[in-house]
Each structure stands twice: as C-alpha cells, then as structure tokens.
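User: My advisor, Dr. K., asked me to get a structural model of this assembly before our group meeting. I'm new to this, so sorry if the format is off. These are the inputs:
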Amino acid sequence: MASLKKFFFIKARDFVHAGEASIHIQSLLKSMHWDPVLIRRVAICSYEGEMNVVIHGGDGVLNLSIENDRLIIEIIDDGPGIQDISLAMQPGYSTASDEAREMGFGAGMGLPNMKKNADDIQIESEPGIRTRASMTFLLESPKETP
Amino acid sequence: MKLCDIVQELDATTLNGEDRLNSEITRCGASDLMSDVLARPTDGTLLMTGLTTIQTIRTAKIAGVVAVVFVRGKRPPPEVLTVARTEDMPLFSSPYSMFVCCGRLHARGLTGLDGRR
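Assistant: The format is fine. Below is the predicted structure of the whole assembly, which you can bring to the meeting.
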C-alpha cells in the first residue's frame, strides 16, 4: 500500500460544511476500492470526530494518513478541551449545545461510536488549550464489525 | 421492497432521486438522533426522520443509507436539497407521522435495522 497524506480544516460551529471532510475521505477510499466495512468504520469515526470539533472545539484540523498496514485519522482542535476524558467516553454523557442537539447530535454517542469503530483510539486533552484524538485502523486483520 | 413501492405506500412526494426509485430496500430505521443512526447497521437501509437539516443528509451518506423519508409532511430548506443533490441522496416527504410510516412499512414486510420484525 503506497503512503498517502491529506489534511482538512474544520471550522468551529460551521454546521453548513460540517462533515465535508469525512465524505471526501469516504469517497477517496471508495475510489481506492477498499473493503466497504472498513470504509464505513473509518467514515463514521472521521465524521463523529469532525462533528465533535464543530460542536465542542475551536477550529481544528483533520489529518489522514495511510502508511503500510494502517490508516490513521488524527483530529486536533484549539480547545476548550475535555475536562474528564473517561466521563466523555461514557455513552449518554454530553455537554453539547442546544444548537448541536437541534442538528441531531449531542446524545453522548460520539466518542463511544469512535471507540467502537477504530482499532485503537488515543485522546489527549489539555483543558483550555487543545484536544487531540488519534484513531488507527488496521488494513489487515481489523477488529470484527461492530 | 422497491423504493417506488415504498413511496406509494407512504403517499410520499419525491424531492430528490427520481432515478433511484428501483432501489431495493429490506431494512428500515427511524430516528431523529444522528449519532444513533451512526451507531447502528444502516448500510443499504431506509431512514425515516423528522430532522430536515444538512447533517441528516451527510449522516445518511456516511452511514450508507439508501434513501431518506421526512415524516409529518416535512420538507427541507433549499440548501439541504442542494446538498442532497450533490451527495446523490434520494429524499421523500410523507404526510404521515413517524409511527404511521413505520407501521405501514412493517405491515408490508420490512424489518428493523437488525433484520428483526
């Protein structure tokens, strides 16, 4: 597998364009004839992560990299950060705004969905400064379909 | 069940995707929570929702949904239709409530997302 790197800007509170990066990634992987199950897992993680930045974060970037046996999606935003990551990972926990809830989000399923679909997820946050989420997908022997 | 038969059963208006009415649907989901849609096995399914936002279309696209039915006669604003055309997502509007839409399709043999009735 040849290596590939792409990055996308994500603008906070921009619900009009939210999700465009993830749909671009989904189309890209389809054009590369990847396994549909793997494409779905990557697309869902990317989209949930993108929406998290739009809903909660400052402006951010999404980095896509494909190298050898893995695909990595790294999402970094300029805060305000996550106060308690283990609490944020619990299904149903949410601090989303009414605006986000009106868009059908804010049910507290974003991070649990990302954890379920990625082979590995690492989240680091400095409250008030930044959050970085890195999700890894193995191209061979991935986890079973959730 | 073909999409055209679903449209007839729900007395729905086609808002986008005239050319996709021959698509075959066997499973359906109904939700206004987009993260719930993303958490379920939605590939190749029909989504019924009362949520007429751009994120409904993008969520459907990411989740592999074949078509979206807006319930209670809801119609999306023009910018949502534009995104649906861009993403090639068939859209329909039914005058019936979510409950009645689900009941009508269930009675015709369609199943939930997990294949159960």
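One thing worth pointing out at the meeting: The two ends of chain A are 25 Å apart (CA to CA).

User: Perfect, thanks a lot.
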